[in-house]
Structures are given as structure tokens and as C-alpha cells.
Design brief:
2 copies of one chain form a homodimer. Chain A is an alpha/beta fold and 333 residues long. The first copy, chain A, has one domain (6-13, 61-110, 137-328): 3-Layer(aba) Sandwich (UDP-N-acetylmuramoyl-L-alanine:D-glutamate ligase), CATH 3.40.1190.20. The first copy, chain A, is built from 12 helices and 14 strands. Chain A has a 9-stranded mixed beta sheet, with helices on both faces. In chain A, strands 3-8-7-2-4 form a 5-stranded mixed beta sheet. In chain A, strand 7 and strand 8 form a beta hairpin. The longest helix of chain A has 16 residues, at 192-207.
């Protein structure tokens, strides 16, 4: 196996976040399901934005947030995602590169604008996302560079890629290349509603070996196996995939593999401000632990630490060096 | 005098803020003067942005921040400022309207992009601004609607308007209309370097009665009269303008009028995060106090409270309702 150039390469929908603090009434008035991610078209995007309060903008996108977290921990990271060559797309490309992530995907020069997510954060810190995919819809297998994919120890994919029409083909292509090069492929289930849309396909990806590692939170896991019993779902997950990592908010996470099940506690926080990016940053810490061969427990702790950092401020990307933070807490970097 | 439709109408450079936390070395390496506002051209903007870390974006602009603060306190507010009809300009227009401010200025359809300021915030909370004026350069007297100006109790202008070539003509036109309608005209000196560029003109504006009220911080006041002695400068200010308000950071502010001099303390804060918007929000509180006829001391306290709110988080606009905050502290709203 060739020397890896990157530790983790992420593929996802490149989405610019437009964040606003709001109240429950706004969600109810606009028929939004709290805590979820709804796909919206241009017309609905305009209607929601018209009614929203003053916002703060920053680059987001689930896998992109994860990859920025991986880079912040000190690993070599790359991202594949599609923006348009417009003002927001240029902000997006700047931010991910400025975080130390390689981005070589060509921006779209025609078609819809760079994708945006209107993220409503309520007083309890919960985020409700409304995503207009925009240019992210135009990610195709042609954007997958075989040499680049083969040069990453882990290829990390987001379940949200099932939403744009041709991104799933890019996903499957990337997985084949990665496995051909002896690399590992990880998938996050992204969102319980996303799982609901693509349940059968996600289970197939696990059973046919397209993915080696699954990240899920409890509600995604329950949705995947259509059961409200955690142990039943976890047992099934263990059978379907080599490595399954399930996050359980303040209860920490559970790592299920052929070696057994390891439970890792969450990290204490002083104030929950905004859960946006919690799962993304957990995955960042866990993936980093894996590439450093730190063991499942340390990987889980690194994930918990990164998640704890990101939920204590507005926005889905770390505001401090996660490497320094991990060092401070005696975790391996 | 006709019934006023607005309490305060602000005219300023409409600028989108691109904020990043950085260190002193970045400022030194890029030849930036800490704490100031430097005007930059497109080439320098690109060079600074290329080297900057991942950023957070939000709408800004000095007078615009003030006007948003006035609206947040519960007064009727309007803003005149020029963006381009581009993605960033649309974010900008949304944010100020969503804050409850009337914005009727037509966006530019050609010419440079919406203006941006690259704001570097160092660990001590100090901000260093690099502003590309962009479309703000195209604010002209044609953007001044006589009926709208005449309908505001106070017209508030920023010294930064002296930088774009034709905005000062818009400024003088607005002042004439306001005075013709029996209204008051306020000016903030904006920045010590700005004062250095236009010292003589600013003094003339005061002496010839174009402005009735001046906002300045200590360094702007010292720059205006080219003296390092505060009392000498304040005495001169008292002679030159009907009402002078000088902010002195943690020492509070001093209000100088024909009635004498009133000192008002600053508001205690728990953590200084980012001074961006401190002066803007002080002016918001003070102007609000004036339109409510709350007296100079209460006006100063309202200014201090609004400034204290904005320096305890990233960004130059309030994150909570200033009206509620003022109520909580027993100040008149």
C-alpha cells in the first residue's frame, strides 16, 4: 500500500450556514420539524429567509465540518465538495483552505448558486436546518480524482450525499477506489429523516461492504432498523458493519465492533449554546483517533472533546485549536 | 414641525464584516496598525484575505450598527447606505431590514462589489479593520430622499463618509434638509486616522453648524485638536459644537454642552471578547436616550449598556434585545 498523503478525505454537500437565534414559535409558524434537516427549494428558501432575523454566516456542510475538525486536531485532511464560483462559494473555499484542508474540487461556473442552510437555533441550543442544496447538486463522479482518493487513509462520506441526484454515484466510485487501494471507508448516517429516505440503500452499503465504519446517533440508528429498542438496533448494527459508532448526546457514545462493545462518556460542558456540528465534530475526533491508532476509547474521548467544544458556541466549526485542546486534556495527538 | 416618522436615520458606508480571530504577529506581518481602520484596494483585500484564517461573516458598517442598536432599543430607525445587488449585498439588506430598520437605498447594479471589512480580532479583544469600500463608494446625493431625511428626529452621519468621493456631498445635502425641517444632525468622528485625513473639514462642519452633536472617542478627540491633553481638547470641543460626547473606554463617557460637563461611568463587563462596534453601540444608546428625552446621564448610561453588550461577543451588532436589557437594568425605554 502506497504511503498515504492524507489521513482523512471527506466528501459531502458544500453548504454555507446562515445561522439565526430564534424561538419555538418561528419553527411552528413555518412548519419546521425541530432538530431535523429539511431540504428546501429556492422558493421556500426565499420565504424562510424573508422572515428570519439578522443572521451570522459561516461555512458549514456536515462532512466539511468534520474534515476541518480533523485538520484542527493536526491530521492531514482533504475535502471534495461542490460550490459555485460566486461570492459565497469563494468565502466557502477560502474558509476550508484557511483551516488547512486541501480542496481541489472545481467550482461550478453555471447552474444554481452555492448551497445554503438556514439554521434556526432555539434557546435550548437545538438547531433546525433548512437546506437549499444549490451547486452541491452538481457533484458528480467526474469530481472524484482516483489518485487523490487512493491517497487517503480513510474516506469519509455523508449520508446527505444521497439527496443530490448524482452524488451517490460519486460516493460509490470513491468507495471502490478507496477499497482498491486498501483504504477504509466511513459513512455518517447524517440525519434520521435522511435515513428514512434511504434506509434500504444505507443497509445495503453496510452489508455489501461499501462502507467499513458507520457513524450514527441514536435516532438515526433507531430509524435505520425501525426499532425503538437501542440494544436491538445496536446488535443489528454490529452484524451489518465492521465498526459502528453510535453517539448518545450527554450519555456519550458506544463503539461496536467484532471485539465487543465499548462505552465512552461525553465530555462535561459549562453551557449548551448551539448543537450545530455536534455529530460532525464527534466524527472528527473519532476518525483522528483511528488514524493515530489511539484505540476506540481514546478515539471516543477525542470525539467527545471535539463535540463539546463546538456545542458551546454558535457555529459548526471549532473556534480553538482542537490539537491544543486535546493536549490540555491529556488525550493523544 | 411635522410629526417625525423616524427617531434616528443613519447614513454610512454599508460594509459586510469578515471577522477572524488572530494574533499580533499577523498584524505585524501584514503591516497593520492595531486598533485602526485602514482603507484597502481590491489587490490588498485579496492579499489579506488569502492569508486570513477561517472567518465568520455578518453585516456591519459603523452607522448601520448604530441604527440597528437604536432599533433594538425600540426606536423607529432608518438607514441610507449603498450595497451592490450581489449575494453579499442581499445578505446585508436582509440583515438590516430583519433588525427592524427601514432601508430604501437602491443597490448598485454595476461597479464594484458590496464593500467588505476584514476585521482581525486579537486575543485582547482589540479589532483592526481593513476596509474595501466597494459599492459604498457609489453613494451620492441622488440617494438622499428629502422627504425621508426630513421625517427623522435625528440624522446620524459617520465620518467615514468622507472617504468615498461623493458621499460627503450626500452628507451635506442631508444635513441641510434636516436643519430645514428643524431636525438635529449628529456626526461620529469614526476613527483617529479618519480624523487625521479630514481634520479641517470636520472642524468646519462643527463651526459652521452643519452638525449639532459630535461623538468621539479620546484618540479621535486628541487627533481632532492635535493635543494630548484631554481637558484642552474637551474645552475646545465645547466651544465648537452644541453637544459633544466623548467615550473613554472603561472610564465611561463625558457629555459636554452649554449646560456644563457630565461624566457617566462605563458598564461593568465579565469578559472583553471583541471591541468591534463598541463606539457604534454607545452612539445607539445615547441617541436613543436623546430621542426619549431621558437626559444626558441616562443617555450616557444607555450608551454604556449597549456598548457593554456588544464587546462581550464577536461581531458589531447586539445579540439580544437591547430594549429588554435596558429594562432589566432599570433604564428608561
Amino acid at each position: 500500500m502506497a504511503e498515504a498523503k492524507y489521513d482523512v478525505l471527506g466528501i459531502g454537500n458544500a453548504i454555507f450556514d446562515v445561522l439565526v437565534q430564534t424561538d419555538e414559535k418561528f419553527l411552528a409558524d413555518h412548519g419546521m420539524t425541530k432538530g431535523g434537516m429539511a431540504l428546501i427549494d429556492e422558493t421556500r428558501a426565499a420565504a424562510i429567509y424573508r422572515d428570519m432575523g439578522p443572521a451570522t454566516e459561516m461555512s458549514g456542510g456536515s462532512a466539511a465540518n468534520t474534515i476541518v475538525g480533523v485538520a484542527s486536531l493536526g491530521a492531514r485532511a482533504a475535502y471534495v465538495g461542490k460550490v459555485k464560483d460566486d461570492q459565497i462559494g469563494r468565502l466557502y473555499s477560502h474558509d476550508i483552505r484557511a483551516a488547512g484542508v486541501a480542496l481541489e474540487t472545481k467550482p461550478a461556473t453555471a447552474g444554481p448558486a452555492t448551497g445554503c442552510s438556514y439554521i434556526l437555533v432555539t434557546g435550548d441550543g437545538e438547531r433546525t436546518m433548512n437546506t437549499y442544496l444549490g451547486a452541491a447538486q452538481d457533484l458528480t463522479p467526474a469530481d472524484i480524482d482516483a489518485a487523490q482518493i487512493a491517497s487517503a487513509k480513510i474516506v469519509y462520506l455523508e449520508g446527505y450525499l444521497w439527496d443530490p441526484s448524482s452524488a451517490k454515484d460519486a460516493f460509490v466510485k470513491a468507495s471502490k477506489i478507496a477499497h482498491g487501494a486498501g483504504r477504509q471507508v466511513a459513512l455518517t448516517l447524517s440525519d434520521a429523516f435522511c435515513v428514512d429516505r434511504y434506509r434500504g440503500e444505507f443497509v445495503d452499503l453496510m452489508r455489501n461492504g461499501t462502507v467499513d465504519l458507520i457513524f450514527a446517533n441514536e435516532s438515526e440508528l433507531h430509524s435505520l432498523y425501525q426499532t425503538s429498542d437501542f440494544d436491538t438496533a445496536l446488535k443489528q448494527l454490529k452484524q451489518d458493519v465492521k465498526l459502528g459508532v453510535v453517539t448518545r448526546s450527554e450519555k456519550g457514545c458506544v463503539v461496536a465492533s467484532s471485539d465487543g462493545v465499548t462505552a465512552v462518556p461525553a465530555f462535561p460542558i459549562s453551557q449548551l449554546v448551539d448543537t450545530t456540528g455536534a455529530g460532525d465534530l464527534f466524527a472528527a475526533g473519532f476518525l483522528f483517533g483511528l488514524v493515530r491508532n489511539a484505540g476506540y476509547e481514546n478515539a471516543g474521548l477525542l470525539g467527545a472533546l471535539a463535540a463539546a467544544e463546538v456545542i458551546q458556541h454558535i457555529g459548526a466549526r471549532p473556534k480553538v485549536s482542537l490539537k491544543e485542546l486535546a493536549k490540555k486534556h491529556g488525550l493523544p495527538v
